[in-house]
Amino acid sequence: MCSLAKSFNYLRNSNRVLGLFPRLYSSNTPQYETLAVSVPKKYVYHVELNRPNKFNTFTPTMWKELITCFSALSDNPECRVVILSGQGKHFTGGIDLNGFVENASKAHELSDVARKARYLYKMIEHYQDGITALENCVKPVLAVVHSACVGAGVDLITAADVRYCTEEAWFQVKEVDVGLAADVGTLQRLPKVIGNTSIARELCYTARKLPAKEALDIGLVSKVFPDRDSAIQQVLEVAQTIASKSPVAVQVTKQSLVYSQSRPTSEGLEHIRLINQTMLQSDDLTKAAISQATKTEAEFDDL
User: How far is residue 52's CA from residue 92's CA, in Å, rounded to a whole number?
Assistant: First the structure.
């Protein structure tokens, strides 16, 4: 019996089996066709792109489920932080071209140019919403990339809050190679993420592969890990640290950062004034102050 207990504890704590206990810390773990959701630690949700046999390419179903999943996590009080990774050989090979062509071909069945344009506009908007769902989620999203991160994958991770990768990871803004301009977020977010428009434009114009070391050097990722397992384990520790903080403080911090990134400083300052005139009255402020003064860990209510 003792041996059995030790085996269970090993499995429970092992970074290789984070998805085996989806209900260990939550009674509300949703199921999806293209995403795998688990709860490896209390308040920490792990979302994995789950089409490993197809290199986790983005299908119409995945675009839809990204919206549904991250909207649900944003509203779920049991979730305080999200880790995003991919199952299988690669993080993602980008958009599923068959699904994209099938969707786009429906526009060509329409005879009028205005109606074709309206159809394509709505299709692009739907894809954009799938990426922006990460940014709209009030919970911090920590992306962990291994091996390939191509096309829509770059769109996806630049909408995350923090990015990490493995030594063998590489990134590619692939769209110009297939005859189109990236239109679901990379062109808008990548220059802001790395703070260098020259490098961002070079990557977007040439579609060259960006290796992990260079991704770290230019600020696309925060840290590079030897492999996926060690990356997930280390990022899980970061996630636990975030989850231990006041959810009021963390979520308002994200809201302010997202709001301010594309606006003048004065507007960002007014935005946080308007929010904190209420949030400074929260019990979390008192609990956090007592925790700091007494060197004890605070317990914050769900939000």
Answer: 9
